[in-house]
Amino acid sequence: MTGAFAERHIGTDAAAQRVMLDALGYDTVDALVKRAVPASIQVAPRSTSDIPPAATEAEALAELRILASQNRVARPMIGLGYYDTFTPSVISRNVFENPSWYTAYTPYQPEISQGRLEALINFQTMVTDLTGLETANASMLDEATAVVEGMLVARRASKSPSNVFLVDTDALPQTKALLAHRAEAVGIELAYTSFAEASVPEAFGAFVQYPGASGRVWDPTEVVSAVHAHGGLVVVAADLLALTLLRSPGALGADVAVGTTQRFGVPLGFGGPHAGYMAVRAGLERQLPGRLVGVSQDAAGHPAYRLALQTREQHIRREKATSNICTSQVLLAVMASMYAVYHGPSGLRGIATDVARKAEALAQRLREYDLHLVSDSFFDTIRVVTPGPSRRVIERARSKGYQLFWVDDATVGISVDETTTADDLAAVAWAFGLPEADENDVRDIPYADAPPLAGVPSQLARVEEYLTHPVFNTHRSETAMMRYLKQLSDRDYALDRGMIPLGSCTMKLNAATEMAAVSWPEFSRVHPFAPEADVHGYLAMIEQLEVWLAEVTGYDAVSLQPNAGSQGELAGLMAIRGYHRANGDVERTVCLIPSSAHGTNAASAVLAGMKVVVVACDEAGNVDLDDLRAKIATHADQLAALMITYPSTHGVYEHDVLEITQAVHDAGGQVYVDGANLNALLGYARFGDLGGDVSHLNLHKTFAIPHGGGGPGVGPVAAKAHLAPHLPSHPLSQRKDHAGGVFDGGAISAAPHGSASILPISWAYVRMMGAEGLRDATAAAVLAANYIALRLKDHYPVLYAGEGGLVAHECILDLRPLKEATGVSVDDVAKRLIDYGFHAPTMSFPVAGTLMVEPTESEDLGEIERFIEAMIAIKAEADAVAAGEWPAGDNPLSNAPHTAESVVAGEWTHPYSRETAVYPVHSLVRTKYWPPVRRIDQAYGDRNLVCACPPIEAFA
């Protein structure tokens, strides 16, 4: 072991590892891993490294303090979809900084996810109420990617034969950049328009920014009608706070509404993570990308929440997927929804009114001195024509600690928010040179009596009610709010309760020291478009992390912009596309993908303009070399890329990986190595040395960023030097040059550096582990997986193994023989594990009827043994069903999970005891996790789709 932090991060100490190694028959952990990992790809520990020796927790925090001090916490008035906000302390402490919320996994096991599912139902209801549309999903990655997804929804649902999508010229610049990059890849033609013309050209859809980037508020009703007349759909990006005062997109006739919920109490964080949103009119709910939470019922007939329409999940639809997004921003969506719960409808309207009055007061003061506004109708943003160079105004404001937006040489943009004060307004007025404002005595601008929305047409004033559900009108006191949040978290299972042994989705320790800096104002209150001089600390930290990640992966360049693994995939494939096109190889559009691959691989390839060709896998789970060679030969001239996951999705190290990548290169293709399983490789092998040209990494897996109940995530893309010029860029980035070169590909995320505010987590993880600690973590993870596989193989067959019978960092337990012999299904086992106090492993992926188990390096031997004990006991219970001791339809497995109510209310009529139901092992008596609902009826929920807060009577 190396250093105090590595010893705390890795759950098994030397004595525990000795027990496990003795069982497996190896002298050292290193010997075990070197037997599992093919010798041909192993790398020796480096004698020199760009990663400094492991720091202590105190040292890492001190270094982060130095980096943080290099960021200037200014007063950001740049706007463009990003605003300073007050996070209510009760939400900051009880959600944002609470491991019960940030260490939870995606709610695929809904019975133990009822708390965050209720919070997401609140989020969906908040969005549908404010947008005036019927159905909202459980969040998007950010506003700009939500607009792209809205465009794709319009394309699928439109009756128009046109290939044109109309784009508002007053759209946010980052949205324009994303639309241009993404539309080109899928053959959509963008037509920019101010919508001022008398007629609207035929198009399959149109996009309107409401209010516009300039702040302008106008009535798009006629444009909506004209687009509909051509069979097109209209997507409106709307500011949710403005919608408390303005007519909703639904009332204007929009088909889709998108946007961000950042200003609902979620810190700026240099661009993220924030929860975007999408809502659709009736009839489009089955076109929604991402996740949708619905209301169903459990086995007792009680209301229960679950993910709705799960057949839309991208790992099922693969190349037929309508989106590659398989995640959301749950933690941030929870925060935004709780901001609405905390303030209620009247509180939100009060905040919006206050913001509008501030903007109007500033505008009026500027008008009094003959300064011209670009638009006289606005909510929170004005653009001012300057009599002299606009840079002078920007610099005067900056000298007082304010960041304004440079529009052009003669125009300055100013956005106000809930944190803006009268002194702030006066300082901005001074920056414009108002003669009555003294430079050394900034005076107040009174705004309390300014009329809100003074220039907005009366027909755009909101008349519809919103947030009428009791949840938004009940929790007014902090006591009530604190207790509500505690009730919800108690209904969930997160890492703070026990192991979440999910294959394919590493759930490791998220140490408190790693999390600490995320809340510091020097990181949290920084605008993503702040000038470079104000963000030196962020840029230095980002460059260090880029260099470290490049070293451990064997690549030359890393972009941290992608804010999810799926977006990292897309960025890597778009880099390959850009490379081939730059070389004149426009015909190279075929992407080979093994049948075992993550489903987002195929979806990402389609969205990058590629054609998916599936490569078979053999009985051992490896890529079928003969089929690969045949597919390469068939598509040699059209081959763009091969996407593989290493170790494979089946949890084994493929020994032919070098032969596979060489065959692709010989045919002129590029190799994309999916980095989802990097936790099995780090320190022992590198993707770049396997023949990889580009990979995405999951910082929310291998590098300790928490999953947050299904988001946030960070999915950096790493590439060899020849692909570096095609990595993501951004029109508002502080710099285009990176440690690995100048990036000039299109934008992938709304912010230049993606979800930058959570990068200190991974920075701290690498800094405190050091290169040796990262290697030790890999070894401990592989050891734990092989120990579980060994202990359980006599009870459940291990489906795939590599040389020496070893697996990688995860193993697939085959439950199909159990189903055949006993009738007990994989669902029964997963739900019964809840009664034993566990979150189930990954179900039926990548093989139906199996469980994929990944213990990670963070779990200690006691927790690993507890899981093994539970799985062995469940096998015995299944055997008892097969032996006729319990009926097939009435046994502890088919009835699992058991709630407290189910064992204490009414007469007990089951053929097994109450103790067997809820205390199958004695250790649970004092530590029992009680699921809040019984098994949920998924089919009922899909037949009766309800995706908003049910009335309170439903729970009576």
TrEMBL record:
Record function comment: The glycine cleavage system catalyzes the degradation of glycine. The P protein binds the alpha-amino group of glycine through its pyridoxal phosphate cofactor; CO(2) is released and the remaining methylamine moiety is then transferred to the lipoamide cofactor of the H protein.
Name of the protein in question: Glycine dehydrogenase (decarboxylating)
Catalytic activity, as annotated: N(6)-[(R)-lipoyl]-L-lysyl-[glycine-cleavage complex H protein] + glycine + H(+) = N(6)-[(R)-S(8)-aminomethyldihydrolipoyl]-L-lysyl-[glycine-cleavage complex H protein] + CO2
Entry-linked HAMAP family: GcvP
Entry EC no(s): 1.4.4.2
Domain Glycine cleavage system P-protein N-terminal residues, every copy: 7-432, 472-740
Protein's UniProt keywords contain Oxidoreductase: yes
Domain of life of the organism encoding this protein: Bacteria
Subunit structure: The glycine cleavage system is composed of four proteins: P, T, L and H.
Chain positions found as N6-(pyridoxal phosphate)lysine: 701
Gene: gcvP
Cofactor needs: pyridoxal 5'-phosphate
Species of origin: Microbacterium gallinarum
Family: Belongs to the GcvP family.
Ranges for domain Glycine dehydrogenase C-terminal: 777-898
Keywords from the UniProt entry: Oxidoreductase, Pyridoxal phosphate
